Structures are given as C-alpha cells and as structure tokens.
Amino acid sequence: MNRELFHPRRNFAAVPEEYADFEKSRAVVLPIPYDSTTEWRSGSRDGPMAIIDASQYLEQFDQALGLIYRCGIHTLPELEPSMGGPQQTIERVHQVASELVRKEKFVVMLGGEHSLTLGMVRALVQKFPRLSVLQLDAHADLRDEHQGTKYSHACVMRRVLEQCPIVQVGIRSLSQEEHQFLAQNRMQPFFAPLDHTSAQEILSSLSKEVYITIDLDVLDPSIMAAVSTPEPGGMGWYEILGLLRRVAGERSIVGFDLVELCPKEGPASCAFLAAKLAYKLMGYAFST
Questions:
Q1: What phi and psi values does residue 173 have, to the nearest 5 degrees?
Q2: CA–CA dist 41, 286 (Å, integer)
Q3: Angstrom distance (rounded) from CA 210 to CA 136
Q4: CATH number, domain at 90?
Q5: Could you tell me if 70 and 16 are in contact, meaning their C-beta atoms sit under 8 angstroms apart?
Q6: What is the spatial distance between Cα 103 and Cα 19, in angstroms, rounded to a whole number?
C-alpha cells in the first residue's frame, strides 16, 4: 500500500498500541476527508477527524459488550482524495479497500460524503458475491445523475444498486425521479417512522452478508444536527442501536461506514455520538 497517500494517524478510541497493530487487528478504520459533490452546506470533509478526535473520550468499556477494542482496531491515516474528481476518488477508495479486504480486515470507513460508499461496496462484492447493503439514511440517493456527474452523493445508492441489492431504512425525503424509479423497480424503502414490524421485515430483506452504510442524517436533528442536509423526523439513538444489534445477531456484517458528519453545523456531541455509534457497531459485529 502506498503510504504517501495518507496523513499521520491517531488511534480510534485511544486504543492501546498493543491492540492497534495493523497485522493483529481485526478492524481497520479508514478515514476519508472528501466532500466535493456536496451542494448545500459543505464541511463533511472534516467529519472523519472530528469522529476520531471525539473517540479519544469514549469509555473503552461497554456495559453490554465489554472491552470492544480487544478485537484489535487499527486506525489508518486519512486517505488523500484524488484531484481527478469523484469517479477517481471512488476508484481510489475501491483500490485501498480491496487491499484491506484481501488481508481479511473488517473495514470501518469514516467519511466524508456518501459517494465514497460505492468504492467500499465494489471491494466487498468481489469477496461476497451475494452481498446486500443496508442503507440507513434520510435521503434515497437514487438519482441517476446530479450536477453533471453520476458519482454525486445524491446518486450513490443508484450506483450501489448496480452492484448488489439494497435495503433502505429511515428514508423521509426523495425526488420525483427517485419516486418513479422506486415504483418502476418495485422497490419499497422502509420509510420513517418505522413501526414495530419493520425490524423483522428489514432482516428478511437482507442477504447473509451485509454491508451497512449510515448517513448520519438518518438520525433526528434533535440529536444529530451536524449534517449538511438535515431532515426532521429521524431515528433515535436506542431505535438505531436496536436495529443494528438485531442485524448483527442474525446476519454477518462484513463492514460498515459512517458518512456525512458536518462538524461545524452542530455541537461537539454529534461527533461523539458518531464515534460511539461506530464503536458499538464494531462490538455488535464482533460479538457474534
């Protein structure tokens, strides 16, 4: 791996060095400071380091999962985006993620904007041909093209769907084009608010191996204001944890990402929430 593409690193969750060695670690945190296709409020490029900075103050012991970091968590330096544009940046993510997957690493990508997810999915589909993607998001992200590119954050799940099936949860905003696309393809997202039957239906829609992509605007703005495109009526903390715990218990989570944290748009508690969510999800994935 070309280390010149990376900036100096800091351990996620202040993991002790003995549990942060790359070769011994089960999980690898991949931060990518990129938001070139963001159209309203930019700043998600600062999200990855804000999450890693906030993670320094996590309680490493979790009352439900114990010392999660003992699985080994290595934190890579920030991956330098390509100067060639979104398609080239996504390809760079694909190349780096593919190498990590070949080394049997569980990759936790911290974005940056949501377009980056496509590079991760392309890497994982090569290893898990029956992969499905669980998308937790306020927005459908199913436009075919947006602002002159098919690789915008607003198109990411359209491109992911070309790779593997997707299950959309928490959606509460979409365009007429996206509405028509869903109808034409007989796709039914799990729109917010979720009801008491949704969790089992979501699980039934997923394949054995699952990649999870979490756009943080899936959460209600009352607890997650620091996003570039907030939408009212989102999921709560215990609601999202309950769903993720069930997915981990009944499916094999093969990687995940957290994207679209825009630190300047909200209090520091938002970065801390994102860090804790990442740590909890690692714990759920490794406890099975």
A1: -155, 130
A2: 35
A3: 13
A4: 3.40.800.10
A5: no
A6: 17
The confidence score (pLDDT) of residue 6 equals: 57
CA distance 35 to 44: 6
Residue 41 dihedral angles phi and psi, to the nearest 5°: -115, 110
| pLDDT band with cut points at 50, 70 and 90 for residue 37 | low
pLDDT of residue 40: 61
Q: Are 228 and 42 in contact (CB under 8 A)?
A: yes
Of the two residues 73 and 287, the one the predictor is more confident about is 73
Q: Supply the Cα-derived Rg of the chain in whole angstroms.
A: 17
Task: Give the DSSP H or E segment for 73.
Answer: strand 73-75
How many domains, the chain?
A: 1
Question: What DSSP designation does 80 have?
Answer: P
Residue range of the domain that includes 167: 3-286
Q: Which tokens in the block code for residue 229? A: 């495109």
**How does pLDDT run across 196-249, given as a tens digit for each residue?**
778 999 999 999 999 999 999 999 999 999 999 999 999 999 999 999 999 999
Q: What is the pTM of this model?
A: 0.94
